[in-house]
Amino acid sequence: MTTWAVDSGIESSLREIREGIKEGRFPARAFNDQQIFDLEQQRLFPRTWCFLAHESEIPSPGDYVTRYIGNNNIIVARDEQGQIHANLNMCRHRGNVMCKSEMGNASHFRCSYHGWTYKNSGELIGVPYMKEGYEGRLKRKDWGLVNVRIDTYAGLVFGCLDPRTPSLEEYLGGFQFYLDLYLKQGEAGSEVHGPPDHWVADTDWKICAENFAGDGYHTPVAHQFGFNLGYFPSSGSTHSQGWAASIPGRGHGIGLGHSPNFPPFGGFPEELTAEMKRTLSPAQIEVFSKVRTAVGTVFPNLSFLMQPFSLVPGETGVRFVTMRLYHPVGPGRMEMYSWCLVPRGASQEYKDEAYKAYTLAFGQAGTFEQDDFENWTKVTRSAKSTMVKNIDFPYIMGMGSERDPDFPGPGHVVRPYVNDTNFRNLWGRWADYLVGDVEP
User: Fold this and answer.
1) pLDDT tens digits for 380-411?
2) Which candidate in 13, 16, 23, 24 could, as Cys together with 5 as Cys, close a disulfide (CB 3.0–4.6 Å)?
3) In CATH, what number is assigned to the domain containing residue 318?
4) Could you tell me which Gene3D superfamilies the record lists for this protein (predicted)?
């Protein structure tokens, strides 16, 4: 049992937690604790690659969105030459918020306090009373917006606050193999379909990140109606079939559900399947053709889910993809961003049908979304209670599982899909950051 510290002993407690993870234990209190939240803001989010935007959200010069890395509000904008920049959403003069809208189009940003004006790429170009007030002592090139390091993969824009953190490619560590299922459904890649759903919930971000790292265990219970009404192309008895894949030491994980009677690439239109076979590698085709449901998390807080959904029970239905970001705003509280991703080159009819399936299943008022948040908010509430201070949860499914030797994809891949291996990997990496043992 973990002895939870509430004072300066937090450092030793964190090391104890990390050792417990190796044995299949994780403290309940971690899902709603002020000290843990503060340490995540200081040691986790500034040092990881955090998702900021999809390139298709800012397709034209001047387009911008505002997003977060931890408690830092970031402007992500496309300049007049088409390049993407990220800058802290704070005027360098007295710290006022520059962009008060979450999205828009602007070639320049002007502070509403003292009027300092910046290009959308971050350079300071306008200072009222420059000659009279500063008398030549202010050099505009030294006072641009604070730049944020960015990198991209297949349309995803990530930001990192620590210049010592390795490249995004190294950070992903081979997880790109699995991300391609969501992002390369065709030769033109992916795009967002409409703005993200966006709401605040009394839920800890880590519960969501864990669930989407491959929790197939909850599905036959929390989403039982899906089986009873025939909306899943599987049954409770076959739902556990498939693989759990994780990148050891990176925290990323994905669950790949497989149904024996589900058609290869079921739920995709034929023309899109043909494109995917030209775009993906032979190993990816071998794996993805067998996948019914794919639910994965890029450490720390970006997740994806793909599955078929049909309004007609028993039919294969249409594939949809939801991309989700869990932004922590306090212990046990987060902002949820949820996008629908569609293949850029697909027909408008398919895009609209996929968006409809996403909305009904995992939009803000989606049926499956309501099931999950009902449970997640209650878990978060329980984690705050005094009696759980020294209570651990078991993470012992699949302890000692050996890698599936026949699986062609990267990482540690085990069977069945219902497994705790991905979660131990997730929490081990989380603990490394909080302890401070992650090498720059």
Assistant:
1) 999 999 999 899 999 999 999 999 999 999 99
2) 13
3) 3.90.380.10
4) Naphthalene 1,2-dioxygenase Alpha Subunit, Chain A, domain 1, Rieske [2Fe-2S] iron-sulphur domain
CA atoms within 13 A of residue 282's CA, in its CB half-sphere: 0
Q: Give residue 325's domain range.
A: 174-435
If you search the block for the tokens 């046990």, which residue do you land on?
A: 332
Cα three-residue angle 433-437-440, rounded to 5 degrees: 85
Domain assignment of residue 106, yes or no: yes
Q: Residue 185's closest CA among 363, 306, 297, 292?
A: 306
Q: Which amino acid is at 88?
A: L
Q: Which residues contact 298 (CB under 8 A, 6 or more apart)?
A: 51, 172, 175, 179, 252, 304
Residues with Cβ within 8 Å of residue 213, at least 6 apart in sequence: 246, 252, 253, 254, 255, 295, 296, 297, 303, 422, 423, 426
Residue 324 counted as domain residue? yes
Same-domain check for residues 184 and 276: yes
205 pLDDT higher than 60 = yes
The span from the CA of 427 to the CA of 209, in Å, is 10
